[in-house]
Amino acid sequence: xxxxQKASQMRRGMAASAALLVVFLxxxxxxxxxxxxxxxxxxxxSMVFDEALRMWQVxxxxxxxxxxxxxxxxxxxxxxxxxxxxxxxxGMSPTAELALSPYILALQIAPKVAFAPLFILWMGFTVYPKxxxxxxxxxxxxxxxxxxxxxxxxxxxxxxxxAFKASRAQIxxxxxxxxxxxxxxxxxxxxxxxxxxxxxxxxxxxxxxxxGYLLSFGEGQAxxxxxxxxxxxxxLVGSVAYLAVIVVEQRVLHYMPARALEAx
Amino acid sequence: MSxxxxxEYRSVTMHFAASGGQKTITAVSEVSLxxxxxxxxxxxxxxxxxxxxxxxxxxxxxxxxxxxxxxDGERVEGPNAHVAFMLQKDLLLPWRTVAENxxxxxxxxxxxxxxxxxxxxxxxAAFNLAExxxxxxxxxxxxxxxxxxxxxxxAVDPSVLLLDEPFSAVDAQxxxxxxxxxxxxxxxxxxxxxxxxxxxxxxxxxSDRVLVMSRRPGRIIDEIxxxxxxxxxxxxxxxxxxxxxxxxxxxxxxxxxxxxxxxPPGGS
Lengths: 264, 268
Prior knowledge:
By secondary structure, chain A is mostly helical. Chain A is built from ten helices and no strands. Chain A has helices at residues 2-34, 45-58, 61-92, 94-109, 116-123, 128-151, 155-163, 168-205, 211-220, 224-252. Chain B starts with a strand and ends in a 15-residue tail after the last helix. Chain B has helices spanning 51-58, 98-102, 104-108, 113-126, 142-155, 172-189, 200-206, 234-238, 242-253, and strands at residues 5-17, 24-36, 40-44, 66-71, 74-75, 83-86, 160-164, 192-196, 209-213, 220-225.
């Protein structure tokens, strides 16, 4: 009876997960006091919560969250689109891949976030440098996964289509593109979390909007609860982005056997 | 068998560049054969003798180094709508339903949608797969998947079918059922087929003629006409005592059971 066993296993796992959350929150609330850790080092949960309410009213927390979310979304969409397009082009042209692979490798090894100051020099304290860092950082996992997927398409499948007199476009749209979707979504999942990293680094380096700005503002004021609120909100933005990718993935890849949220 | 020649190879020779060196390997050498309308001919031979190369030449996927293949008297210059092939791998597209997979070829050939669906439904019904038409490949057994592949091959209504070990990946009992389905379909539709197989019994029970190929460079070294009734019923043929004489002769021609048997040097 594999199925009920799996269901009960899942229930137990979720119960343990919820219990762990309660323990964690309790430790956060009462741990610092019990261990006499000063609140500017580790503010208890209630203080962070009060700070969140204060920031909501005074510091336009919602607006800054919105700015960061918009930057993450723009960077993620553009970066994945570019990554996918380059992945397909390089996947279909071995010559182009050979010619470009050393540069791609170098760019992939270079820490993308280190470009943030440069982009700010170029574009000023606007949203664009933040988006650009996210684009750059999202680009690679998507491109590499698409490239590998196009390379990995069974040549017999392509021959089957060719034997039916398929055109190059038909081979792409009917075989290579759908075959590349599962690895592409694996790349998009990684990209969705990396986009947040890219945007935050951009906001930390310079600017006057976004959660990264609130983060560094809080740091400058030695307002530890503000730093915590910013980190929590960033985690929330990243989680929503990741979940959105999963929801789309499950709709698109519905034909795959038993896809659960196993990778979460 | 009389009737027009559907598939013909005239002195087909195929060289490949050997991996690493400048040397070339001759995969097939001067192969000539003709398959007449409605005939089922099997091609057997040791591994690496170039059987699959011949299939690719017939399907127009590769051009031979010398000689040519002809389908319905026309020289094969590239993929063409008269030929369809089926491999050991079912090559079903996992993102398409069973019916959509069957329609894959006719969709590429841009048949009207209603016609595509009519063909798919008729074939699925003929193969007892109608109730699975909305399922996805991962939900099917290996034997069912292979039947869907056969339906996809037939959906384009080819005049020649090229079959490369189509049932070698399924279990023995499923294979017998699939062989029967194939034999019945070929007879009913009057299709011409070239079947590549390692299974001597499959070759004898399904074919009108069996061609034996040598080791590389592959040449045709024998041709055996199978003079048995009921080509549409391989299961009945299996029980015919004369089958064993044919299988015995094929074993002899292939040197099976002799000390010389083995992979050719550098064989694939």
